Amino acid sequence: MVGGKWWCFDNRSSGGDVADLNPVLLVSGVGGTILNSKPKSWFGVTTRVWVRILLADLEFRKRVWSLYNPDTGYTEVLDDSSDIVVPQDDYGLYAIDILDPSYWIKCLHVTDVYHFHDMIDMLIKCGYKKGSTLFGYGYDFRQSNRIDQSMDGLKEKLETAYKASGGKKVNLISHSMGGLLVSCFISLHSDVFSKYVNKWITIATPFQGAPGCINDSLLTGLQFVEGLESYFFVSRWSMHQLLVECPSIYEMLPNPEFQWRKQPEIFVWRNRSENGQDSAKLETYDPSGCVGLFEEALKDNEIEYNKKTIPLPFNSSIYKWAATTRKMLNSVQLPEGIDFYNIYGTSLDTPFDVCYGSETDPINDPSEICHTSPEYSYVDGDATVPAESAMADGFPAIERVGIPGAHRGLLRDETVFEYIRKWLGLQLQSNTTRVGVKISKVVDFGLG
Description:
The protein is an alpha/beta fold. The chain has helices at 56-63, 103-108, 117-125, 148-164, 178-188, 190-196, 211-219, 236-243, 247-250, 290-297, 316-331, 387-391, 414-423, and strands at residues 24-27, 35-39, 47-50, 66-69, 74-77, 82-85, 134-137, 170-175, 197-203, 266-274, 277-285, 302-305, 308-311, 339-346, 348-356, 375-381, 399-404, 438-440. This is Phospholipase A(1).
């Protein structure tokens, strides 16, 4: 989507008295960080591989496609001449600001790739200053949410923000999967979290998973950009080949232990032959039973890379790793003295159940699913994460607020900004509540 502003350069300024402000650290979610491909040798050019619009699919296949290493727990790029790195410019804010910061993207104000940009602007206008009270944390979102690299990086950012502000505790604002990363950090480093964190505001976090989107992403891929722009971006199929090797994706599968109002399911119309007669049968898979379907559907999945054929079936090693992560997420407890706030998206059709094939056009072989357009059943949410999942944080929240809006759009929503300013103590609470906004100050959802 292209906005109506025709400006090219970032004229932000950081000013005002910041002496009384606790520092803010912004934590991105899946796909919300610039990733660069850096040559291992002294020679060569560092290339932005996520996000880019021009030559996106070509560079993605060449430099980002990866394989999971069960010995290390890390997903490693197939390109053995380079590494994936996160740029650290601008106190970590550059990597999570405009995900394609190229000249013409800024000139056209292509908001599809504007991530934390508007929120950063809002905080600066409120008096926050980069490097003393405002910081960003981007990370390699291909990896597990509990991998040492991500945990150590978050610890370092918290320490940096704490020291730069003169020993003031940090207010965390996380988006989407970033909330799961923070939850893992609490589980593994509760003492560090207590030492450095004052408040935690999370936005659109899939605490119990994102059933429709994640189930389908493992079977057919994921399209981050829709419409005309998608022809200039990474294709759904190319993204699919990365996601089947990403622990972070497996960690957002629907939680089978959560007491859903209705269990999320995958439906497949299969062509079955009985007594010489073909007929369509509807098969159903719940969160615990979907592994068998993933294994069947992805058994022949493969890519061609450097003239070699590389099998990419459903990765059982990643699934086992993710199951341990889920146990950690199910048992994490917020340390005492931390104020927790939860914003979740509402009012949009959000994929929940997924169906492949139809009664009149059934699936003959499970591998066909990977090349099939899905049909969804929908629930209320932000078009990516069901409100039911995003609400179910399991923490003693000060407030939970449901705001009508899309998953990424919530990062640019003025109502979201109003609540952030209120919770950070930047303004008094308004006497009026916007239409459609749902507020609760106590745990209001049965957690599994």
